[in-house]
Amino acid sequence: MLDDIKPFPNLLNLHQTVVDAFCELAESTISTTGRFRVSLSGGSTPKRIYEMLAQRDLSWQHIHWFWGDERNVPHDHRDSNFLMVRKALLDHVPVPEANVHPVPVNVDDPKAAAQQYEATLRTYFEGDTFPQWDLALLGMGDDAHTASLFPQTDALNESERWFVENWVEKFDAFRYTLTAPAINSAAQSWFLIAGENKQDALAKVFSNQHEPQLYPSQLVTPSRWFICADAIA
């Protein structure tokens, strides 16, 4: 299946294509429904996309921003996904504060924070079995994780919850993450993948070896793959 995907020749081309597609989808959705709900990804590839989006003229007052995963650190910590998005995008565009929905990090009680964010999502998407994102942006790590669904972690087995705290042994820390069903409920979900360090993981995700406990990105069925040529062996 990987052979069927046409990779982007360079990262700039990938970034520009994603930004154009994001703007087109956002404006089309807003014209139809009056709003656009997006689940954001952390990472260096999405960061540049957010910086480029900040230069566009969008209907910012109708876009709602959520986070697909977060680190268990305060919002002003350099590792915070919220801080990254705020600095790259939200500080530069007229987004109403009510449209920004960050994870309420609680360093000492991540379970309570995850439950609080799930309650926020269930209130916002009241009546839905799982959150009906208009778009979920996703990255993939060199261990084939996506969001904070890491190999051989408890969150991979969750089928009812929307958002959970997830203990990641290799970091000796909790991460916050959407569950796989809460990602797959998106009307559109896009994987954004670049870098030579992703080659092995990407090949395994696309292989006939279906082992989502080892390769969590296999749990997601994206509508589009945006893959840079350097990520393909």
Automatic annotation (TrEMBL):
Keywords: Hydrolase. Pathway: Carbohydrate degradation; pentose phosphate pathway; D-ribulose 5-phosphate from D-glucose 6-phosphate (oxidative stage): step 2/3. It comes from the Bacteria. InterPro entries: 6-phosphogluconolactonase_DevB, 6PGL, Glc/Gal-6P_isomerase, NagB/RpiA_transferase-like. It catalyses: 6-phospho-D-glucono-1,5-lactone + H2O = 6-phospho-D-gluconate + H(+). Pfam families: Glucosamine_iso (PF01182). GO terms for molecular function: 6-phosphogluconolactonase activity. Its EC number is 3.1.1.31. This is 6-phosphogluconolactonase. It comes from Stieleria marina.
